[in-house]
Design goal:
With 767 residues, this protein is an alpha+beta fold. 62% of the residues lie in helices and 9% in strands. A hairpin with a 2-residue loop joins strand 8 (648-653) and strand 9 (656-661). The N and C termini lie far apart (142 Å).
Length: 767
């Protein structure tokens, strides 16, 4: 029983152990299965992740490749079409987005194709910046493109396409550098292009080689032309032409380089004065130009280019006085330019070219005295500028071009063919047409000044009666008065109105209306003296004119010591007189004599003097003496000396220098040149110098004034002297006895409210 019990207890223990072992095994089995499940799950996730990574990588590569293809299409193939359409905004935005995409690609996804795409993007941005006038940004973009191309060339040195692309980019960079004024850098870029090309073996059968060689030589020529080294530019142009020999590839770029090299060579010959060589070059440019038109008949740019060459050839034949040949080429040029304008009437550049052709036709007909044939071309020329003005009335360039053209043809009609009536008629037509433009479109000061100038042209004495001149001057003055009202703090507006008052005053003098003339001249003097800075334009000479007019209109009880038309003794030989020539004791009885004005070259001299035998080497100096009497020294202060000289002069009184005008300090000799050169109205201005009698070496009885007049250069066209001395002649205040009521009556709208305000408080002056 006990043994049985013991065995039972032993079996129970064995069972428990077996049970524990089985449970432990089961637990271990379950744990193993769970771990296996976790491993399988992790493996599955890893496989899924790897599959996704592979798919993403494939998509990334495909996206990159698609982006590279799209970049090549949009930024390369469509680049010039979009720029020609003026859509640099689309092109620039596309390029910037593409650049951002490629720059942010992971390094492992970037390859040589990506580098090539980056070069294309930078090329595009360079063209966009250039089209928008941002030269510095364009240069930076070309330089970035060069860095990418250098990387490609180093990676694949045997790939000539990378090298050719580098050469082309160097030449493109040179263009922008030239236009940015960085010519020395442009020279380096052009030389780099040629140096890289020379690293290749010359291959006359390889069009790409020949085209790039011609382009590089052309670029070197352009650098020299930009620097105005025309003699050095011409050989480079000729070498560029020789790069093609007699077999020019029928490719646009080759023909374009060939055409432009001849065209620009012709320009250089013209600048050097070799008309025959210029004509030869321009005629040679026609051949590749006509080939370009055949190659791309829809490209209007080639029509524009050939029209320019034809116009140049026509003007050269005009210079050679071969009217038949001139008309032959000018007619073809005009027809092409007219067709371009009809095809695209809003293209400003083509409109301006059309105006040039019309201008040339009109001038050639006037050369032949065929006035009636010239008139339609003149009117059409005006029509072009009036069209541009109507589109852009605030564009000052169109205003200036029309004014210059009107002045040119008026001058030719008056002086070359003797038809002032036609000059007046054309001026009236132009001013009437422009006056009809809506005032809200043409309210700028520039416009008012322009229209004022046109009315001033109508007031020209060569084409207008005195009454008509006054009417036109009043209109011109009213427009300038409007400008002063618009910009009262702008001293230029005060100056412009002052000059209009002076012109109007002189018209009233010509009409024998001294009271009206006086108020106009006083207003001119007031604006110049009180509201115009001393260094602005020609303020001082104009004030001198006002003083002389005021003196003549309201003479004081002055003593005339030397009249402006006094008789002077003079010496007009090349060699100077004796050293004491300016003293009272010098004997000038052997000198020539005559009344002032003395000189030559202005056609209004009372006495013509000699300038020597060589018109290109005139005598630089002439010497003058005038004796005058002084009865009393009392009442001479202030003493006014008015000097008209062209160019500079030294004035001596009784041997003592009292005035030096337009000559350097220090000793003066017969070969000393004047430091100023007078032209235009300044040649007729008496410069005023004020003295007290006590400070001058005046003596009772006989005195002598001696003047030496010096030219600015030996080739100077004219010389002049006149001198007036008045005793007891103070300078008038601008508003001395000013009659404002009369001024308002005479001027009306030409007396602006702001000026009336200033006149009521004349102490108001420009700071």
């Amino acid at each position: 029983m006990p043994r049985l019990f013991q065995r039972q207890r032993r079996y129970r223990r064995l069972f428990h152990v077996a049970l524990v072992v089985a449970a432990t095994f089961l637990i271990l089995l379950l744990i193993q299965r769970h771990q296996l499940s976790l491993l399988q799950s992790t493996l599955s996730q890893t496989q899924t992740f790897l599959a996704e990574a592979r798919r993403t990588a494939n998509l990334g590569n495909r996206a990159r490749e698609q982006a590279e293809d799209l970049t090549s299409f949009i930024l390369d193939d469509l680049r010039f079409e979009l720029i020609a359409l003026g859509r640099t905004d689309i092109l620039g935005e596309s390029a910037r987005r593409s650049l951002d995409y490629f720059e942010n690609l992971p390094p492992e996804l970037k390859g040589l194709t990506t580098t090539d795409a980056l070069a294309t993007i930078h090329n595009t941005l360079a063209n966009v910046h250039y089209a928008e006038g941002s030269f510095d940004e364009s240069v930076a973009a070309w330089q970035a493109s060069l860095r990418n191309l250098e990387h490609l060339h180093r990676a694949e040195p045997d790939n000539d396409s990378h090298l050719y692309h580098l050469i082309e980019t160097h030449n493109e960079l040179a263009i922008i550098l030239r236009e940015a004024g960085r010519v020395e850098e442009a020279m380096v870029a052009s030389q780099q292009a040629l140096k890289r090309l020379d690293s290749l073996a010359p291959d006359s059968d390889n069009n790409q080689y020949r085209i790039n060689r011609a382009a590089s030589l052309f670029s070197l020529a352009e650098n020299q032309r930009f620097l105005e080294n025309y003699e050095q530019a011409i050989p480079f142009y000729q070498e560029a032409q020789k790069a093609f020999a007699e077999d020019i590839p029928k490719e646009v770029i080759a023909l374009q380089i060939h055409m432009t090299s001849f065209n620009n060579e012709g320009y250089c010959h013209l600048c050097l004065g070799d008309i025959d060589a210029a004509l030869k070059a321009y005629l040679a440019a026609l051949i590749p130009n006509r080939d370009l038109i055949q190659l791309e008949p829809g490209n209007r740019h080639w029509q524009k280019e050939i029209a320019t060459v034809l116009n140049n050839i026509g003007t050269i034949h005009d210079e050679n006085e071969d009217a038949d040949l001139a008309f032959r080429y000018l007619d073809e040029s005009l027809a092409l330019r007219e067709s371009l304008v009809l095809w695209d009437p809003v293209n400003t550049r083509w409109q301006l070219d059309y105006a040039t052709s019309l201008h040339n036709h009109a001038s050639l007909h006037l050369d032949l005295n065929a006035v009636e044939k010239a008139l339609p071309y003149i009117r059409k020329t005006f029509d072009v500028y009036q069209l541009l003005i109507s589109r852009e009335p605030e564009q000052e360039n169109w205003l200036r071009r029309l004014q210059d053209t009107l002045r040119h043809f008026n001058d030719r009609l008056v002086h070359d063919v003797g038809r002032p009536d036609l000059a007046k008629k054309l001026s009236t037509e132009v001013t009437d047409a422009l006056a009809e433009l809506p005032r809200d479109a043409v309210t700028s000061p520039a416009w008012n000044l322009f229209l004022s100038s046109l009315y001033g042209e109508l007031g020209n004495a060569t084409i207008a009666s005195t009454e008509e001149a006054i009417e036109s001057r009043l209109k011109a003055t009213s427009l300038r008065a409007r400008n002063l009202q618009l910009e009262p703090e702008n001293p230029e507006r005060a100056y412009e109105l002052a000059t209009a008052y002076l012109d109007l005053g002189e018209d009233y003098l010509a009409a024998s209306e001294p009271h009206s003339a006086r108020v106009c001249i006083q207003l001119c003097h007031y604006l110049l003296a009180r509201h115009t800075p001393p260094l602005l334009f020609r303020r001082e000479p104009l004030i001198d004119i006002c003083h002389r007019h005021q003196q003549s209109l309201s003479p004081d009880a002055t003593m005339t010591l030397v009249p402006s038309d006094a008789i002077w003794n003079y010496e007009d030989r090349r060699y100077p007189p004796a050293e004491d020539w300016n003293t009272l004791s010098f004997d000038d009885s052997a000198w020539k004599s005559g009344p002032a004005k003395l000189g030559y070259g202005d056609s209004d001299e009372a006495t013509l003097i000699n300038f020597g035998g060589d018109p290109d080497r005139k005598n630089l100096t002439a010497w003058f003496r005038h004796r005058f009497e002084v009865d009393t020294l009392s009442g001479l202060t202030p003493l006014r000396l008015s000097l008209l000289c062209d160019d500079g002069a030294v004035v001596y009184l009784n041997g003592e220098e009292i005035i030096r005008h337009g000559l350097p300090p220090g000793p003066i000799t017969a070969t000393t040149t004047s430091s100023i050169m007078k032209s235009g109205f300044e040649e007729d201005v008496f410069r005023i110098f004020m003295f007290s009698a006590e400070e001058l070496p005046l003596i009772m009885g006989e005195n002598v004034l001696a003047v030496e007049v010096h030219q600015n250069e030996p080739q100077s066209s004219d010389l002049a002297l006149a001198l007036e001395v008045l005793g007891g002649a103070p300078l008038r205040d601008p508003l001395d006895s000013f009659d404002q009521e009369l001024a308002e009556q005479v001027l009306g709208e030409a007396l602006p409210p702001i000026l009336r305000t200033w006149l009521s408080a004349p102490e108001h002056t420009l700071d």
